[in-house]
């Protein structure tokens, strides 16, 4: 049981401006009409809303692909929107309001702010809309009907265990390159890493912590800052693989890329290739396509039977590395590349 606090295409597009922050599109199995109207079977197809953090991150691109495929296979209308940037809560609130007004039966959302989004979701649920969080839980998790996600605590724990075993008793000087305040997925991965490594927040082995927003350029800048503060860092935890590659670039500039162990989370194709090349030692791979397809399926089930999905559904996580260590189960990059995304 995971912790309860825990992630034919339309012939036309429907675009509505969301205060300059979002674009809403609706895809169905046939036809398209004006804003807020359904396309599809006679009597109107079931409408499902998908709101991701951004529309540029490969993780969310793959999530959208999974939702589109499931919607097309079942003849339902998929409406999509994305934040203008990671952390854009206001844009997501506007998207929720527009989708509810358009008559969606269910909403799938990766919250940009796990707490600030809650009032908007509660209003949607009060109107009978099924609300499912994908990838990132709300705070509290009960603000949504269900959560379909990686066990992010476990994802962090796996790379923490790996890093601990890989260090083989050598004193660790750890830098944590985190996400941003207020985002539960970042908190869970960070806490999981500490748990897996066998330390707690404030442990003296943690010599630097910086936020990166999961961005490669910010990850590089954060690593540069950490190296100025503690030049002898030998372990780097990163929130995701773009941040990890930024850290690698900063270390390479100092000639230290072969001396420092970098571990990460996501399992995108670029990141998995970086594991294969040795830039990243290990990553915890997650599966966004599965999150979205199962979420769409849950809304369809609700539309057909009135039965709401509830609780937490773990969509899986696998530790990927070509440098196995004793006592930690890993799969190699052959498996990782066969199951990656992006």
TrEMBL record:
InterPro entries: Peripla_BP_I, SBP_2_dom
One Pfam family cited in the UniProt record for this chain: Peripla_BP_4
Gene3D superfamilies, A to Z: 3.40.50.2300
Record-annotated Periplasmic binding protein domain positions: 48-306
Cellular location(s): Cell envelope
Signal peptide: 1-21
This protein's UniProt keywords: Signal
Protein family according to the UniProt entry: Belongs to the bacterial solute-binding protein 2 family.
Record-given protein name: Substrate-binding domain-containing protein
Organism: Sphaerisporangium flaviroseum
């Amino acid at each position: 049981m995971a912790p309860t606090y825990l992630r034919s295409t339309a012939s036309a597009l429907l675009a509505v401006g969301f205060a300059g922050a979002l674009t809403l599109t609706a895809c169905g199995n046939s036809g398209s009409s004006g804003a807020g109207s359904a396309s599809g079977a006679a009597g109107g197809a079931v409408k499902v809303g998908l709101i991701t953090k951004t529309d540029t991150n490969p993780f969310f691109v793959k999530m959208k692909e999974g939702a589109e495929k499931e919607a097309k296979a079942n003849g339902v209308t998929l409406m999509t929107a994305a934040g203008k940037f990671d952390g854009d809560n206001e844009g997501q609130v506007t998207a929720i309001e527009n989708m509810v007004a358009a008559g969606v039966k269910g909403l799938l959302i990766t919250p940009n702010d796990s707490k600030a989004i809650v009032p908007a979701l509660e209003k949607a649920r009060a109107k009978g809309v099924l609300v499912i969080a994908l990838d990132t839980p709300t705070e509290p998790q009960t603000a949504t009907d269900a959560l379909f996600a990686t066990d992010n605590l476990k994802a962090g724990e796996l790379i923490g265990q790996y890093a601990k075993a890989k260090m083989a008793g050598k004193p660790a000087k750890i830098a944590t390159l985190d996400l941003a305040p207020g985002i539960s997925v970042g908190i869970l991965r960070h806490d999981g890493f500490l748990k897996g490594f066998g330390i707690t927040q404030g442990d003296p082995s943690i010599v630097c912590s910086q936020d990166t927003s999961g961005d490669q350029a910010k990850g590089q800048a954060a690593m540069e800052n950490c190296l100025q503060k503690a030049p002898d860092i030998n372990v780097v935890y990163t929130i995701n693989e773009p941040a990890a590659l930024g850290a690698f670039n900063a270390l390479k500039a100092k000639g230290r890329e072969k001396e420092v162990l970098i571990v990460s989370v996501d399992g995108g194709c670029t990141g998995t290739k970086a594991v294969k090349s040795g830039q990243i030692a290990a990553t915890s791979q997650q599966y966004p396509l599965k999150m979205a397809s199962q979420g769409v399926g849950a809304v369809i089930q609700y539309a057909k039977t009135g039965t709401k999905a509830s609780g937490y559904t773990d969509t899986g996580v696998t530790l990927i590395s070509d440098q196995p260590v004793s006592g930690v189960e890993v799969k190699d990059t052959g498996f990782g590349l066969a199951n990656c995304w992006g």
